[in-house]
Amino acid sequence: MTLVLAGCSGAQSTFDTAGVEAESVLSLFWVMLAGSTAIWLFVVGLSIYATKANPEAHSEKAGVRLIIWGGCVFPVVTLSALLVFGLGMMPEFRRAADGPTIAVSGERFWWRIHYEVEGEPGVVRSLPRNGVESANELVLPVGRRTELLLGSPDVIHSFWVPSIAGKTDAIPGRVNRLVLEPTREGVYNGVCAEFCGEAHAQMGLRVIVLSETDYAVRVAAEAAPAALLDHPGRALFSANGCNACHTVRGTGDDGHKVGPDLTHLAARRTLAAGVLPMTPENIGRFIASTDHVKPGVEMPVFDTLSEDDVASIADWLGRLK
Ligand SMILES: [Cu+2]
Q: What value does the mean pLDDT take over residues 206-214?
């Protein structure tokens, strides 16, 4: 029991809530649990009664009464009460956003994030690609209702940060909306909750809830071009074709790319959607053996690069805060 309950707290738990919607989901869970426990106890009680009751003949009337009350009235009343309780929570989720709008795209197998996207709320038909691009780490202001626009270029993913809100699918060809209202500052973990391919289980997301001021500072930092452009690793990065898939803003080679934006890679806590802690050594490990570090990854292995070249690129990327 202790071991089981130990799994109920922490940065990725529906029981350790840090968001308005997650709190509603949790109270819904407790009420549903109470309702189902009542039904279960009733049925177990009846079974025990059936084994203990005298095996004499019961009247047909008593049998019909049992079916009407126990088989119809009791479940209809209990389930209707639970339904009304559940539906009553819905308006709360529909309240309009009063915070920023952020576009989140589920990619194989990582999360593309755009802050400060433009486009009238309500008329967005495809996921905006404007604003400030980042990946795998989502910053949110505490106490504000932030609207996420969720989509995907190819397969279905599901965006889930258990401590903050319920799941919402990211579906190709449409934009789903999810409003997050975090109630506590902190770092929370999210996952992809819909099987999307080989590395699906390694498609983690960090959600960092900050005060409104710190949020603005962090987004402004994300918007800035890369520092430290004068580094041998930068030339190797372009010479080896990394820039075919990755953008490092400020190197003059921007544009839409298939891989994560690396402009401020080192400011993130983890590498490759939560697979490794962010250190220059781990960046080097990832470049030289992508498919070992993250089997199924959509980035080619660069095992033809010399150890020095990998170290130099990793050193450069590791300084891009
Ligand atoms: Cu996924």
A: 96
